[in-house]
Amino acid sequence: MGERSHQLYEKAVALMPGGVNSPVRAFGAVGGEPFFTARSAGPYLYTEDGERLVDYVSSWGPLILGHAHPAVVAAIAQAAADGTSFGTPSRLEVELAARIHAAMPAVERIRMVSSGTEATMSAIRLARAATGRSLIVKFIGCYHGHVDALMVSAGSGMATLGIPSSPGVTAAAVSDTVAVPYNDLAAVAELFDQRGAEVAAVIVEPVAGNMGVVPPVDGFLDGLRQITAAHGALLIFDEVITGFRVAYGGAQSLCGVRPDLTCLGKVIGGGLPVGAYGGRRDLMAMVAPEGKVYQAGTLSGNPLAMAAGAATLDQLALPDAYQRLEEMAIMLADGLAEAAKASGVPLTVNRAWTIFTTFFSRTPVRDFSQAQACSLETYARYFHGMLDQGVFVAPSQFEAMFVSLAHDPALISRTVAASRQVFARLAETQS
Ligand code: KE4
Hints:
Elements: H1 3-15, E1 37-41, E2 44-47, E3 52-55, H2 70-81, H3 91-103, E4 109-113, H4 116-131, E5 135-140, E6 160-161, E7 177-181, H5 185-195, E8 199-204, H6 220-230, E9 234-238, H7 252-255, E10 261-264, E11 275-279, H8 281-284, H9 303-316, H10 321-343, E12 348-352, E13 355-359, H11 368-372, H12 376-388, E14 391-392, E15 401-402, H13 409-430
Helix pairs in contact: 2-9, 3-9, 5-6, 10-13, 12-13
Bound molecules: ligand KE4.
């Protein structure tokens, strides 16, 4: 990358681990030094070295309107002029909470926090308190933030006892966590046959986005709903990615399954730090100060973040927003698939409404073990090839591609055209 990014990277590495404030930004999965962004607008990132990149990472999901949307910037500016934080309740918190509740009837009441991690951490604490049980069931390859109890990397195959996926996460912290393969309802049923009475909750991404996009197979989510209800366990939908991304009402509005608790983040903050958890009225009544389940946050419900989130949702509520997003996602996903096919590069594309992933695999990808079998080396070459063409896709095979309302069909066409050269070069070096 350019000289200014390199100089900044040198300074950044001296000050911050990997020179970044979140690991995936360091390009570790694809190699090379990360570029530094100076500013962004619409569908573009502008690097410190004057390059303009078409952005399909979307700050990992939040920037569904594109960067620096005028309505969002104006809302933040107005909120800032009225004060950056009050430490008291504010109208803006009520306004965002009301929008989310109206969009997601299962979210009968809600608590704002400052990240998706806080949302899932709080939701599992609440589930354990509400059921008096300890066991949490998650899925291999699903990521719910860096909560100790959910940092479990389990082997493939049947139910696997929690194995810490990071140093510093103790065996004790994950001793009440079990991971099973995504889309494997039989594995869930078997686990519940053996230990159902111990399970506080199943937490699931209703569309997996952290192994790359892996949609739920037919009956998977309905099955989770039935099994958890039958055993008195709660069902938690982690919609930090899918909430207001795949539809205004999130994945739960599309799959027809009503979770007991929902975790949100990303889009609801419009690019500012916001997470939230919410759900059944009787469960949320257990959260302090009404109940005894303690959870708190200095900047929870921050007025600037609330304003950015509300302004974002108001744009998404406009007619045809999701139709446009899905049409562009289809155009891009199909275009990339056709470009790869024309060059003879094996590619499997998984799409769920407005999000998708291009897997460098000859076979279907329905769980993490199949995602791991992809050619990560080819993905890395694809990433750099696209970057050389001025297109920024996720610097990891295990992430989603995001379009925004700032993209348009002409830009998608140019991206597909650029990809043809990239796939052609991949094919040359492949043979
Ligand atoms: P945050 O704490 O990063 O706001 O949210 C954690 C989280 C929870 N649940 C799901 C389904 C998520 O995808 C995430 C965070 N996603 C990652 C990558 N997809 C964010 C990128 C990063 O870690 O820098």
